Amino acid sequence: MTEGVRPPDEALDVVNRVRQALAQPSAGTERAPLRPAQVAAVEERRRFDFGTLPEYEMLKLQKAAGEIAGIENPFYRLHDGRAAETTSVEGREVINFSSYDYLGLNGHPDVSAAAKAAIDKFGTSVGASRLTAGERQVHRDLEALLAELHGAEDALSFVSGHATNVSVIGGLLGPDDLLVSDALIHNSVVEGAKLSGAKRILCPHGDVEAIERALRLNRRRHRRTLIIVEGLYSMDGDVPDLAALVRLKRRYDAWLMVDEAHSVGVLGATGRGIAEEQGVDPADVDIWMGTLSKALASTGGYVAGSRKLIELLKYTSPGFVYSVGGCPSVTAAAGAAIEAMRREPWRLAKLRENGRAFAAGAKARGLDTGLSIGASVVPIIVGNSPNAVILSQRLLARGYNVIPIIFPGVAENQSRLRFFITSRHTPEHIDGVLDAIAEELPEIRKAPSFINVVAGR
Q: Of 54, 201, 291, 434, whose CB neighbour count within 10 A is largest?
């Protein structure tokens, strides 16, 4: 990820200026010295006040700097109803480019009906972990569909996508093991690696030769080795060379895990993900991981692979064993979404058409889409965090909801707006937002910099 990335020195200088300004007493006020008992009381409160943590202080400083510069907080916008290709933000309908609903299945009649029927039959909860409370047929049905989707023997669903990676990686690997991953791998993988205690090597993004070099130099010193990549990278919208990674995992006796969170329902002729997209036998991948919250219009995560892998996880993976089973409605919705995807292939075709149109239109307007292949994720790289936030604010004013990705989520010079493209977007939606960016971004870049505004220069 972006561990070790620091903001520019000039930005740090401004942060220090804001800190000093916030620490100054109001004009015309003087503070009497505190008595010892008062000092002790203050220190007592500070020990139990999370607001005194350095991390919270930095959050306050960031908010204060934004307020000084007149920049609104673009995060946690309040939506009034179902978010699809359009949404209502605080009572105003806008075109929405910040939804994972790639195939437009959120609110699909069959998906909603399956969720409601599951509530009628099983209630809103299964009551405990599946180990304790027993199985429900909706879980087994969904896992059979997921296994078939990935050409695997079996699958297991978890209540959280993030927790799936943390728990599976944290459980399969230990301090004697090695994890080799792409530098832009998802945070859930990073946290799982930390939990495992395994040696972790981050390789430059998309650099298969660097992965080979890491394996050649380190594999023999470790008990087990796991290579992990994403099927479609969630920040950049590009893909790995899966066939090359399969060759490496065989050569160095390593497991290969692919996180398909953003690629199932997006890549491949029938939405089966990167193996189908690149013509690779899915059996050559040891661990398929995915989420139910993107194209499958639900929530949760899953792993697909051999029956022995799934049996092992069923009894040993903490994120499964010690978590309540997936809500019946959520589980049934995901299964119905897979079936709808199969019955309505036009959704995938339209998604890919829209993704290509967005990427081509952006490039024609001189906008930087980075490495994106033009599928479901296409960034517009702005170059610094303040400009990305300001652009998001300007677009919302013009009727487009798109959220910025800023430092430390990405390196400061890679700050961007991340567009999620869906099958329900129209050419008018795409051309309209791209025209708006092409008009607004040059004006933002010509204006006084955020640093200068905050510093009062």
A: 291
* C-alpha–C-alpha distance, residues 370 and 384, integer Å: 14
Got the DSSP string for 69-130?
A: TTPPP-SSPPB-S--SSEEEETTEEEEE-----TTS-TT-HHHHHHHHHHHHHH-S---S-H
Pairing state of beta strands 301-305 and 287-291?
Answer: antiparallel
In this structure, the number of other CB atoms found within 10 A of the CB of residue 274 comes to 25
> For the residues 245-258, what does the mean pLDDT come to?
98
> Of 180, 201, 183, which Cα lies nearest the Cα of 245?
180
Cα separations (Å) of 68 from 22, 26, 391? 12, 17, 17
Instruction: Name the strands in the sheet holding 178-182, side by side, starting at the edge strand that comes first in the sequence.
Output: 154-158, 301-305, 287-291, 255-259, 225-230, 178-182, 199-203
Task: Give 112-150 pLDDT, tens digit per residue.
Answer: 999 999 999 999 999 999 999 989 999 999 999 999 999
Confidence of residue 6 (pLDDT cuts 50, 70, 90): very low
pTM for this one?
A: 0.88
pLDDT in tens, 299-345: 999 999 999 999 999 999 999 999 999 999 999 999 999 999 999 99
Please give the backbone phi and psi of residue 370, each rounded to the nearest 5 degrees, phi first.
Answer: 60, -130
Give the 3-state secondary structure of residue 269: coil
CA neighbor of 2 nearest in space, from 385, 259, 290, 325:
385
pLDDT digits (tens, 9 = 90+) for 82-99: 889 999 998 999 999 999
| 268 vs 300: CA distance, rounded Å | 22
Based on its alpha-carbon atoms, the radius of gyration of the chain, rounded to whole angstroms, reads: 24
User: 154 forms bridges with which residues in the sheet?
Assistant: 305
* Residue 347 near residue 328, CB atoms below 8 Å: no
Span 333-363, pLDDT tens digits: 999 999 999 999 999 999 999 999 999 999 9
Query: Whose CA is closest to 202, among 220, 221, 185?
Result: 185
Residues 6+ apart with CB under 8 A from 230: 182, 184, 185, 186, 240, 258, 259, 260, 261, 262, 263
Q: How far is CA 211 from the centre of its chain?
A: 23
Which DSSP symbol is given to 283? G
Phi then psi dihedrals of residue 335, to 5 deg? -65, -40
Helix (H, G, I), strand (E, B) or coil at 383: coil
